[in-house]
Design goal:
It holds the Pfam family YdjM. By secondary structure, the protein is mostly helical. It has one domain. The protein contains 8 helices and no strands.
Length: about 260
């Protein structure tokens, strides 16, 4: 939900920027991509939710990414960096990865709206559905995730057939989703090495985080009882505001959902 919140906030607030003037179709595609991208960085953890999304396929990809991330961590860490494996919260948890994911997505979509975008939609829809349904979907039921992802992809492709989605907007959406993930990790106990490879206090993998009193435990009571519901409410509100701005919700024209 943090990815959806970030995408909705960026598009709702940037009213005078092209990213805030998207067609409803482009906005919806971006919403799916951003929601899924908010789980993408955790592909570096073989036991994460995202690594179980598509069964052996995503599990294999997760193992590969974990190995690469671990190698990069070991070869670029300094003496002040912690002596850990570095596979999780490593390379995929940096702004460099978010930028690469955004640029890569834009390039792929520009190559082909017919096959590239549907493939990306299917993958990111799967990540989004898996994340949202995590507490209800059995870990072994990759078939259900695949079916729901396929349905979302078909619906989006059919809706955007006459109004192609913006390739640049797709890239921005993926980048925004990744950054939302980093910000969420940054307020947990472990922090997040967002600024790698910039050395901070002698560390190239400096864990960016607020003071300890402002951090929360991953999966703890604060996250589940306060942060989670708040993020969900804000996501729905700002999504409605962004769609209203795009002209997709005419019945809300009499309401000022974003009075700024």
């Amino acid at each position: 939900m943090s990815g959806l919140l970030a995408w909705a906030a960026v598009t709702a607030i940037a009213e005078n920027h092209p990213i805030g003037q998207l067609s409803p179709q482009s906005w919806a595609v971006g919403a799916v991509l951003a929601t899924g991208a908010a789980l993408l960085p955790d592909l570096d953890h073989p036991s994460s939710t995202v690594s179980r999304t598509f069964g052996p396929v995503s599990a294999g990809a997760s193992t590969l990414i974990n190995t690469i991330s671990s190698f990069v961590y070991r070869t670029t860490r300094t003496r002040k960096d912690s002596n850990r494996d570095g596979g999780h919260r490593g390379l995929t948890h940096t702004l460099m990865f978010a930028l690469a994911a955004a640029v890569g997505t834009t390039a792929v979509v520009q190559q082909s709206q017919k096959w590239a975008l549907p493939v990306l939609m299917f993958v990111f829809a799967g990540l989004a559905v898996r994340g949202i349904m995590n507490d209800w979907c059995p870990q072994r039921d990759a078939l259900l995730i695949t079916g729901v992802s396929a349905a979302i992809t078909v619906a989006c492709v059919a809706w955007t057939a006459q109004t192609p989605a913006s390739a640049a907007a797709c890239g921005v959406a993926v980048g925004v989703g990744c950054v939302a993930h980093y910000l969420g990790d940054a307020i947990t106990e472990q922090g997040c090495p967002i600024l790698w490879p910039i050395p901070l206090m002698g560390k190239t993998w400096f864990p960016v985080a607020p003071p300890k009193i402002m951090r929360m435990k991953t999966g703890g009571k604060v996250e589940m009882a306060i942060v989670g519901p708040l993020v969900t409410i804000l996501s729905v509100w700002l999504s409605a505001a962004a769609l209203q701005q795009a002209g997709a919700l005419p019945f809300l024209e009499s309401f000022d959902l974003l009075p700024i």
